[in-house]
Specification:
This protein is mainly α. It is built from 5 helices and no strands.
Length: about 110
């Protein structure tokens, strides 16, 4: 832990961890395309559990919300959309999440 190489080790570990999480999220997206909802949820939840600092958490949150929305589990979708809105001021998923929240709260 006292090695002068530790900053590089931490940086490279983070890069590797992001790549691993990205690959898991891509598998989840494939499962979503073929409507294997359980498989997609399992992959996304594993990413969020194993890598709480994942840099693309907004995408994982949004994908989980969409799965629950599309499978008529609207109550489960709501907190995931809310996480995108609460945790990310700049996200490709922010506007879509805000729209879904309005839609869900109007019902």
């Amino acid at each position: 832990p006292e090695s002068p190489l530790m900053p590089d080790v931490r940086k490279n570990w983070r890069i590797a961890r992001v790549r691993l999480s990205d690959s898991e999220r891509l598998v989840a997206e494939l499962y979503m395309r073929i409507t294997n909802w359980r498989g997609a949820v399992a992959r996304l939840q594993a990413v969020l559990k194993d890598d709480p600092n994942y840099t693309n958490r907004d995408a994982a949150y949004y994908d989980l919300a969409e799965i629950y929305f599309k499978t008529d589990n609207k109550a489960q979708a709501l907190p995931w959309y809310q996480k995108v809105v609460d945790e990310f001021t700049k996200s490709d998923y922010l506007e879509k999440s805000q729209e879904r929240l309005k839609e869900l709260k109007a019902k």
